[in-house]
User: Fold this.
Amino acid sequence: MGLQIVKKEGIDVIFATCPPFSDALIGTLLKLLTGKPLVLDFRDDWIETPWYDSKPKISRTIERWMEGWAVRTAQKVILVTEWSQKAFLRRYPDQPREKFLFLPNGCDLDDFVGLNSTQVVPRNAKFTILHAGSLNDAKLWARSPLTLFQAISNILKQQPEMADKLEMVFAGDFTKRHRELAEEMGLSNIIKELGHLPHADVLRLIKSADLLLAINYEGFSTLIPGKIYEYWAAGGPPILFLSCSGAAQELIEKKELGITVPPDDVQAIEHAILTVYNRSVTGNPIHISATGVEEYDRKTLSGTLAQVLSSILPDKK
Assistant:
């Protein structure tokens, strides 16, 4: 089908974005069959990740070879974090450094214009911790609030009066297992499940919250969750980021967007929540600045991508 489209539509450049990583293989085959230049766009890393490491040795060997074949065939390889770019440069020292381009994910800043200027978002009556996006309990792609629940449970045991002053809001998928965990820990009364909402409603929730929760996939050090950019663009509540060291932790600490905590350090999570809570109730809440997020505006990023594609266009003169 790709071959038919290239011939019929007069395609100039093949752009393969992955995962799924079969896209990289399809793009590579189409480049070899048509001679059209190929750009690979890795939104997540293929190899040297927990799910890759979980596979049998023969599978890892084959997939490492397949990635190398695609990378060496492509004209350009786009990576969405600097950590990922460094990993590819390390894996492919025989390839030109300029082949590997850092082009991050971002957000649509136009969505925040009204939110940050003319529109007043009312504050919540309770101290609100918000997680916008989906949680899951998949074996290798787990994004679980377990340690957060443990931290909140410990706080309420020490300060039971906070049960009437604290609320956890989840906008997106909230699994049956997570609901059961909340019930087991006696947290059901302070948890509000909103499910999937229109984007504008989610942005208002982000702006009105007191603390924004983000949880990274464990072991994926090169990955930055997309919600980080929208949290940042809201220019208000700090982020509590549960993650092992990596690209996302580095971004949050460098840009002073909030507090990063190892995902299994319950005591550190408690301390982070109480720090933000105490600042809030004493009238000196922590706020983060949206300054700097403009370089992650999707319009700007799309312009950079257009320049990349133009640079490899065949001369039609």
Notes: Residues 77 and 100 are 5 Å apart (CA to CA). The chain is about 45% helix and 15% strand.
